[in-house]
Structures are given as structure tokens and as C-alpha cells.
Design brief:
Elements: H1 7-12, H2 15-21, H3 31-60, H4 64-87, H5 90-112, H6 115-118, H7 127-135, H8 138-164, H9 171-207, E1 217-230, E2 235-241, E3 247-254, E4 265-272, E5 278-285, E6 290-301
Antiparallel strand pairs: 1-6, 2-5, 3-6, 4-5
Helix pairs in contact: 3-4, 3-9, 4-5, 5-7, 5-8, 7-8
């Protein structure tokens, strides 16, 4: 069965990059899921590529343990992307990438001797809660942010002990690395958000039948429909409507519990209504009943 490309990636990306972005796409995926998979693959590839800067820098300074940490991240990330392309296990791929982006920067910071000597390389860990916000949902992103804050606080607590035994690095190297860390995290976040927002807006335009001169949104809001109950082995539909005079740009399932023992939910449909003023999600539950939410982005248009 042919896998249809995402409406946005098919028009905006070079052919080789488009093929990379769509390696884990399934024929049954909605436009929303296609966008999330594409952004996750591209952001993971970008971060793994940028890690090469730290591998080379720390190897040149003779810090072999510190150089080995981003190199290990590159290898594990490449293996994760390859496995996703072969098995298309989206949840496993998503969680493995989020965990790696959260943990590896803090491990690297410890190996270098704390905040100052590492040029605050733990900033890269912020990409985990940001990624969770985009790829998992607003509610599920909260634990990732809490974990990031907790690791920062723990790092601050042990920083004096780490700094005492840290190898001295030239101030110029520390300053340059700090600039690169800030620019690297900012660039990754900006590119990820830029692609994600553009892709969702383009996908929504296509879903509402507008393939060309669509009016541009002048103001947007995100709304969430409260818990919708779905019984075990049954289907349930949740519909969220936009405020008056607003049109829907995109929507998705949200508020779903994840992790071991969590209810298994399958999205049957996720699409705008015929008028383009709301979003409809139909979900089928497995052996356990569950609650879910529907999230939509709405906007006034000129």
C-alpha cells in the first residue's frame, strides 16, 4: 500500500529530506500524526548531527570520556531512527528520543565538571519537555518539564563538588562552548516550532479543501474539550467547536494517559467538521475504559 506524503512536506522539502521525514509514516496515519512523526524524525536527526560538534571539540581537548557521551548519543539515536523506519513503532521511538535528549546533556555536564566548565550544556535537556509538548500533548508534557527542572536542581546541588575536581579549560573554550550551546538549543527549538506550525496550518488548509489562496490567520487560540468517556471495546466521538467567527486550523487527541498499564486507545478519525469550524476525533478503546480530550487550534481569518 502506498504511503501518501504529508501535504506540507511534499511541497516544502527537498526530495531527500522529504524521504527522511516520512520514513515512519503509515498509510493509515492522519495528517496530524504524519506531521508529528516528520517533525520528530527531522529534529532527532538535527540534534544527532549537531552532537558531532561536541564530539570533535572534546576529542581535540583530550576529554575522551566527555567526547564519548555525545558520540554514544549519535549511535543510539541513529539506531532508534533506523528501528523506527523498519518497525514503525512510534511510541517507542518518541519516548526513546525524549529520554535521550533529557538525560544525555546532564550526564555530559557531570563528566565535564558542572555548569561552568560544561558551559551549561544541560540546556539541551530542555528539548525534551519541548518535544513532549509537540509530540505527546500538553498534559503529558508536564512530567517531562518537572523532570528537567528536577535535574537542573540536582545538578546545582552537586555542582560545587564537581567543580572542585574538574579539569581546567581555557576561558575562551568555555565561552565559545557556551555561545554554541545557547545558539544550538535556540536553533533547534526555532526550527522545530517553525516546521511544526507551518505543517499543521498547511495540513488544515488542505483538509478544509483550500489548496491555494487561503486567508491568513490573524489571531489563534487553542481550545480543549473536557474528558470524553469511551467504554471498553467501544468507540466514542468528541467534537470541539471554535468560537464564533473562527475557523479550525488543526486538531488532535490529547489528555491520554501513557506508560505501562495505561488504557490502549486507537484513533479512528481525526478531522475537521464539514463547516471547518470544529474538530472531530473518534477513538476506540481496548480492554480498558478510558477518558480522552480533543484539542483544536482555531483562528480568525482576514
Amino acid at each position: 500500500m502506498e504511503v501518501l506524503p504529508s501535504r506540507w512536506t511534499s511541497r516544502r522539502l527537498p526530495s531527500w529530506l522529504k524521504r527522511l521525514a516520512e520514513i515512519g509514516v503509515s498509510p493509515s496515519d492522519s495528517e496530524e500524526v504524519r506531521v508529528r512523526k516528520a517533525v520528530l524524525v527531522l529534529s532527532s536527526t538535527l540534534m544527532a548531527s549537531l552532537a558531532g560538534v561536541w564530539v570533535g571539540t572534546y576529542a581535540a581537548l583530550g576529554l575522551w570520556v566527555s567526547a564519548a557521551i555525545p558520540f554514544a548519543y549519535q549511535l543510539v539515536s541513529a539506531a532508534s531512527i533506523y528501528t523506527f523506519a523498519r518497525k514503525r513503532r512510534h511510541r517507542l521511538f518518541r519516548h526513546s528520543q525524549l529520554w535521550m535528549s533529557l538525560v544525555f546533556p546532564f550526564v555530559l555536564q557531570v563528566s565535564l565538571g558542572g555548569f561552568e566548565n560544561s558551559s551549561a550544556v544541560c540546556l539541551w535537556g530542555f528539548t525534551a519537555p519541548l518535544g513532549a509538548l509537540l509530540f505527546v500533548g500538553t498534559r503529558q508534557a508536564v512530567p517531562w518539564f518537572v523532570a528537567f527542572v528536577g535535574l537542573v536542581l540536582v545538578s546545582g546541588g552537586i555542582d560545587p563538588a564537581l567543580a572542585t575536581g574538574a579539569r581546567h579549560l581555557l576561558s575562551g573554550v568555555v565561552f565559545a562552548a557556551f555561545v554554541l550551546n545557547v545558539l544550538g538549543v535556540a536553533t533547534t527549538a526555532y526550527v522545530l516550532l517553525q516546521y511544526f506550525v507551518r505543517a499543521r496550518i498547511a495540513g488544515a488548509k488542505g483538509a478544509t479543501g483550500d489548496q491555494g489562496s487561503a486567508p491568513q490567520p490573524s489571531y489563534s487560540v487553542v481550545g480543549t474539550l473536557g474528558n470524553v468517556f469511551v467504554a471498553a471495546n467501544d468507540e466514542s466521538t468528541g467534537t470541539i467547536s471554535c468560537p464564533a467567527r473562527m475557523r479550525v486550523l488543526s486538531g488532535s487527541l490529547s489528555g491520554v494517559t501513557t506508560g505501562p498499564g495505561a488504557p490502549r486507545l486507537t484513533v479512528v478519525t481525526s478531522e475537521p467538521n464539514q463547516a471547518g469550524t470544529g474538530w472531530i476525533v473518534t477513538v476506540r478503546a481496548g480492554a480498558q475504559a478510558a477518558d480522552f480530550q480533543v484539542e483544536a487550534v482555531c483562528a480568525f481569518v482576514d
